[in-house]
């Protein structure tokens, strides 16, 4: 046995991760892929890398030092289960199987439980950063047992992205915690992309600026509070000119956004946990709305405002949009961290929220300086019930709320859709409200379903005899 780590699955992600591992001092990497040509190809293309190519699971296991450690990078779902089954035939108690694919966290919980019974450790690990991240340094979110982290920690630290001197990896929590956190990362990513898209749309429609001019605005924004990978690439995309037509590429791309499902999982999980993650959910719905051309009434079927809106002062409008974007982004991240907090409580994970923000500063798609503020907020108050109530974010929201309201009002009056800007504002005002009309909803529920209600002035559970004399009775608590 000569390899200290193995990779199973050598499509783009697995090959790049294997190359990343092999490039670090002290690593020798056993590689295996179901179709042998991928293994041969990788070895032939990269003679510089310390690979041990293997062509059966037996050979793969025999080439690994104990405890054997294998990272699976195969198509999530049935592929993952098939590889685990094969590895369990050749691995021994104490060995470690890491699933780096995009697994649904509940699958990871199930797999961890089943694999643990064999004595082998199973670690579900979120990997963010796409192909380039896998090769040069991803943000890594491993779950699994403490025992496995002892072996995995140094290896993963050596290949992760580095942000401000720290590797972007931590032992997130037990069993499915890593994949859970990766899922929420993607949900936040959906919202972050959508608020950027809304900002672009508002500026373009209200000021008539060209995509190239708006690219300059984003490049400028990238030097301030909004500095992030997504803002940076937005400028690049907007500046791109189509070679065939000489038009801005953004005008040539079909306006139907695809999705691979992780944003939807985040919204679904938020609903299951009862967490109001409206910005993230709206971002998912915005993509689904875009991708149903048969539902989009583009030919004036549905009436809109009589006149198009034109900003009187373009520069002032752009600044208001920037502030609205910043405020909506704070809401999206706040909601995302609230989902992680609720998930940790529900599934019994100990997750350090500040460290999660820290490991997203490098390697991953939502990497941004802004994440330091989240780490600081949780360092000051680890039990913050709502992230955006931390002083830094409260001040940022105080400074941006007037512009945010103005932009949402303008968007509504002028018929420019801004689903995440506006739903985030509604969420913000919902949290601020002293009293909510939820009281009326409780009254309605009691009326039609005898669902009972609480009173503000005394303890107990009550019901009004709506179809009787409408007197109130104390309800017997059946729980
Ligand atoms: P794919 O998701 O396209 O999967 C292809 C790989 O899976 C091939 O190596 C294939 O082997 C293998 N495979 C599929 N079914 C089986 C099976 N039943 N038994 C054994 N091997 C099987 O590869 P990617 O590299 O794009 O992604 C790998 C994983 O990483 C996925 O789970 C993906 O969701 C995740 N991921 C991807 C990111 C990205 O940006 N692309 C980012 C982060 C995670 P064969 O060659 O024999 O067909």
How is this structure best described in words?
There is one protein chain. With 479 residues, this protein is α/β, with parallel strands linked by helices. Helices cover 53% and strands 9% of the residues. The chain has 18 helices and eleven strands. It has helices at 12-22, 36-45, 57-62, 78-90, 105-116, 130-136, 146-159, 177-207, 211-221, 229-239, 262-273, 278-290, 314-347, 353-359, 371-380, 391-414, 419-432, 438-449, and strands at residues 5-8, 29-32, 51-53, 69-72, 96-99, 121-128, 139-142, 162-163, 166-167, 462-464, 472-474. A seven-stranded mixed beta sheet has the order 3-2-1-4-5-6-7, with helices on both faces. Strands 8-9 form a two-stranded antiparallel ribbon. Helix 9 (211-221) runs antiparallel to helix 10, helix 11 (262-273) packs across helix 12 (278-290) and helix 11 crosses helix 13. The longest helix has 34 residues, at 314-347. It is globular. It is an enzyme of class 1 (oxidoreductase). It holds the Pfam family 6PGD. This is 6-phosphogluconate dehydrogenase, decarboxylating. Residues 178-467 form the 6-phosphogluconate dehydrogenase C-terminal domain.
């Amino acid at each position: 046995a000569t390899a200290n780590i193995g990779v199973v699955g050598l499509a783009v992600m697995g090959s790049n991760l294997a190359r990343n591992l092999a490039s670090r001092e002290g690593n020798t990497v056993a590689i295996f892929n179901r179709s042998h040509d991928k293994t041969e190809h990788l070895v032939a293309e990269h003679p510089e890398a310390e690979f041990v190519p293997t062509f059966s699971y037996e050979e793969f296991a025999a080439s690994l030092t104990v405890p054997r450690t294998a990272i699976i990078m195969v198509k999530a779902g049935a592929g993952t289960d098939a590889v685990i089954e094969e590895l369990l035939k050749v691995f021994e108690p104490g060995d470690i199987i890491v699933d780096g694919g995009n697994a649904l966290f509940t699958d990871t919980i199930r797999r961890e439980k089943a694999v643990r019974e064999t004595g082998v450790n199973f670690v579900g690990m979120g990997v963010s950063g796409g192909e380039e991240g896998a090769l040069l340094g991803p943000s890594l979110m491993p779950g699994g047992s403490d025992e496995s982290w002892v072996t995995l920690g140094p290896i993963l630290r050596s290949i992760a992205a580095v942000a401000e001197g720290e590797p972007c990896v931590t032992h997130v929590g037990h069993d499915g915690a890593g994949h859970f956190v990766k899922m929420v990362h993607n949900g936040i990513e959906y919202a972050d992309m959508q608020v950027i898209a809304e900002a672009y749309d508002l500026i373009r429609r209200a000021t008539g600026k060209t995509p190239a001019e708006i690219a300059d605005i984003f490049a400028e924004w990238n030097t301030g509070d909004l500095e992030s990978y997504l803002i940076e690439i937005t400028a690049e995309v907007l500046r791109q000119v189509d070679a065939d037509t000489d038009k801005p590429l953004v005008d040539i791309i079909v306006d139907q956004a695809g999705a691979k499902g992780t944003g939807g999982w985040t919204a679904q999980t938020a609903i299951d946990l009862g967490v109001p993650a409206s910005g993230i959910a709206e971002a998912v719905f915005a993509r689904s709305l875009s991708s149903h051309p048969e539902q989009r009434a583009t030919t004036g079927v549905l009436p809109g405002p009589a006149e198009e809106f034109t900003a009187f002062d373009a520069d002032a409008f752009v600044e208001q949009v920037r502030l609205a974007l910043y405020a909506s982004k704070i809401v999206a991240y706040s909601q995302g961290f609230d989902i992680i907090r609720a998930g940790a409580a529900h599934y019994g994970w100990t997750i350090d929220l500040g460290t999660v923000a820290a490991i997203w500063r490098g390697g991953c798609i939502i990497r941004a300086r802004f994440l330091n503020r989240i780490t600081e907020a949780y360092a000051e108050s680890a039990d913050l019930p709502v992230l955006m109530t931390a002083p830094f974010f409260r001040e940022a929201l105080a400074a941006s709320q007037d512009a945010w309201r103005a932009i949402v009002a303008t968007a509504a009056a002028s018929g420019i859709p801004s689903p995440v800007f506006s739903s985030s504002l509604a969420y913000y005002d919902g949290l601020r409200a002293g009293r909510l009309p939820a009281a009326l909803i409780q009254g309605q529920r009691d009326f039609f379903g005898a669902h009972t209600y609480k009173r503000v002035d005394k303890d107990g559970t009550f019901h009004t005899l709506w179809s009787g004399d409408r007197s109130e009775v104390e309800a017997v608590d059946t729980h």
